[in-house]
Every structure is written in structure tokens, then in C-alpha cells.
Amino acid sequence: MDNRQLTVVSTDGCSGHGSAQLQPQRPNRWDAAKEQRFLEMLAVTANVRASLREVGMTSTSLYHRRRTRPAFARAWNQALDEGYALVEAQALDRAINGVPSVIDPKRPELVVTRPASDRIILTLIAAHAKRVGATRAKRAAMPDDPDRVMRRLRDQLDKLAVSLGVEVLR
How distant is the alpha carbon of residue 154 from its chain centre? Predict the structure, then answer.
């Protein structure tokens, strides 16, 4: 059974006469709860498509929201970073501790753990080092304390005013 809701719309502009159409209601509206749920799922799964399915929205509306709402785009990036960190931690745990596997489906109590993979561990460490390096580069590019920046700008303006022979009004 289709559980979409329908709205009756009069085709003649008047109620009570003429023919009517059934149109699906538009559940395709973002609200704070859907946005929050999407971001929570993204932080846990690092999977945009699965997070989108969870809130029942279209990819078109999602990417439009991301383009037009900078705060949402920032929250999305943060949630995705958290999700990837979680996935990476899980992969590292599996690589180090192995993965339990049932030997015989008829005897599920017999479990063996596959050995760790050094190649996967080294790949994860390299990815982590790259991410840490990128984070450090971003921090280095960020401006200093706002008061310090303002003092430096005023000093530069004062020097410029002296060289031009003008007075700076404050």
C-alpha cells in the first residue's frame, strides 16, 4: 500500500463544482528536524545517500540546500569528517584485531578471527597523517587574534597616511 498523502485540488478554481485532481502532498520540505537527523546520520555513516534516505528527501533539494545555506554546508562537512573518522577507526580496529568469521554455518559457535592486515594499517595511518597535515595547514592559514589583526591594519594605515602626507581620521 502506498502511504503517500494526497491533496484534492479543484481544477476550476471553485470548490464544489467541476473536476478535481489528486496531487501528492509535498513532503520534500526541509525543516530543522530533518536537517538535524540528516547530519546525525551522516556523522555516523559518512554516507550521504543513506542519510538522505533516512529523512526522505531528494538529492536535488539536498544539494540546493547545501549551495544556498553556508551554515548547513559547514555542518555537513563537519558531520562528514566525523563519519569518516568513525569509519576509519572501525577499519583500523578490524585491521589490528582481525574480523571474526564463522567457520561452519551449522555450528555458529565456532568462530575464527582472521589476522590483521599490515597493508590496511599502513594505508590508514598514511590517510590519517595526510588529514592531520591538511588540518594543520588550514589552522596556519587562519587569521590571528582579531585585535592583533586590527592593530596591524591600523599601523599599516598610519604608515600609508604618513607616506601620502594625509591625516587618518578615527
Answer: 39
C-alpha cell at 25: 502532498
**Around Cβ 57, how many Cβ atoms within 10 Å?**
19
Q: For residue range 3-45, what is the model confidence (pLDDT) as tens digits?
A: 444 444 444 554 455 555 554 545 568 999 999 999 999 999 9
Of 81, 36, 27, the closest CA to residue 57 belongs to 27
Place of cell 569518516: 84
Cβ neighbours around 161 below 10 Å, total: 13
Does the pLDDT at position 65 exceed 90? yes
Give the C-alpha separation, 6 to 127, whole Å. Answer: 49
Residues 98 and 115 sit within 8 Å (Cβ to Cβ): yes
Sign of CA dihedral 80, 86, 92, 98: negative
State whether residue 10 is helix, strand or coil.
strand
Rounded to whole angstroms, what are the CA distances from 82 to 33, 39, 42, 113, 133? 20, 10, 8, 28, 17
Decide: residue 45, CB within 10 A, 0-12 exposed, 13-18 middle, 19+ buried: middle
